[in-house]
Amino acid sequence: MSSVNANRKAMDDCSRFSHSMASLVDGELDPGHAMDVESHVSACSGCAEQVELARATRVSLKRTCALRAPDALRARLCGTMSRERENAAEISAAQASISPKLIRLRYAMGLAAAAGVVFAMAMSRHKSPTAANDELPIIAANVPGPSTFDVLDDLVSLHANPLPPETTNPEVLQNWDPFVGVPVRRPMLQPFGARFNGARVFAIPAGDRRAAMLQYTVHGGHRVTVYVFNPRTVPVEAMRLDRRLVGQSSVYVGNRGGYSVAAAKHRGVGYAIASDLDTDESAQMVLAAVNQ
Fold first, then answer.
1. Which residue in 238, 237, 235, 226 sits closest to 274, CA to CA?
2. What value does the mean pLDDT take over residues 258-279?
């Protein structure tokens, strides 16, 4: 029986770290998370083979794919990275209350997102070569805008495979306002017997956008992740959820990847909840968050 439990734990660990393998190879993980993944890889031959295969694939691509990103795209990426540096300088006053690791992670993820666009463009050109004067329309078609990008998969993935919290002190959350662009406060969620476990800031792909991720445990030991974001840059209407009217409030609900998701906005602040609860409970919980 002990060997069965050990095998089951090993499979759970592999499943938990599988989504981080590519990020580890690309150097996109923050130091703490990278150490956790590397520790697992060093003890798991199967995952170690995946990492080696990923590294070999990237080396092979670098040797065979000599395409250069168009100058217009390179200029856009350089401008994005320059704005990241300017934003970091403007909020230097808030950095004293936020751990240095968070600042490094924010900047690294911005660079990683830019690099990902270049890589995707090169791969697209490698598969379907086009004339040089067709390059700009292809870029515009493949880069989703802030109003249409579906973030549901990312929110559900972060809930299913949670990163360790950056802080467990709710008093620090207000210092994240400049990062997220809206007031970040801890929803108490008392009617649900919620216990606050910690929080962190993360970058939303396909744009210069960030959100706060607050982790809770509610009645029955269920994990609940509350996301706080700017609804002007991440519209709840674009999340491909069903609109439901609860009293006088609009709530957007649905299911994705075996989890329920509910989202709403109030006074310029957006909230979303991912959990394994049913959609009705998730809807009630997100309403409690926006109305308190």
1. 226
2. 92
